[in-house]
């Protein structure tokens, strides 16, 4: 959604508010729809005209100029979820423990099958 306003108050001149509304809609078959809560969230953010982590950012015209007037929202707002850091050594150890447990269970099952008179 683009909102253009030539009559901005002085404190908003040469500034642009980017809002990352990528997830603010109801998915439809052929077309997505803004729900009331999505519209309300966008309006509230616009009225407050301030940064909201991972959702909105007020950017100076100079920064946009420095980015060769690229208006891609993702250039100005990082909305990516922080990725979990995985301790590979710990996960590997857990995998080894689980593998040993699996082997023990497999041996028990083979014993039960043998007791029942079935062969593998």
TrEMBL record:
Enzymatic reactions: a 2'-deoxyadenosine in DNA + S-adenosyl-L-methionine = an N(6)-methyl-2'-deoxyadenosine in DNA + S-adenosyl-L-homocysteine + H(+)
Statement: the UniProt record of this protein carries the keyword Transferase: yes
The entry's keywords: Endonuclease, Hydrolase, Methyltransferase, Nuclease, Restriction system, S-adenosyl-L-methionine, Transferase
Keyword Coiled coil: no
EC number, as in UniProt: 2.1.1.72
Any single biological process term in GO: methylation
Enzyme class name: transferase
Coiled-coil segments: none
Protein name: site-specific DNA-methyltransferase (adenine-specific)
């Amino acid at each position: 959604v683009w909102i253009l306003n030539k009559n901005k108050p002085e404190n908003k001149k040469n500034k642009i508010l980017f809002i990352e509304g990528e997830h603010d809609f109801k998915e439809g078959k052929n077309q997505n729809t803004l729900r009331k809560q999505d519209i309300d969230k966008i309006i509230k953010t616009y009225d407050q005209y301030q940064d909201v982590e991972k959702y909105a950012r007020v950017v100076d015209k100079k920064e946009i100029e420095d980015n060769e007037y690229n208006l891609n929202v993702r250039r100005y707002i990082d909305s990516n979820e922080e990725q979990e850091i995985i301790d590979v050594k710990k996960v590997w150890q857990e995998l080894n423990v689980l593998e040993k447990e699996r082997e023990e269970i497999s041996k028990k099952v083979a014993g039960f099958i043998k007791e029942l008179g079935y062969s593998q």
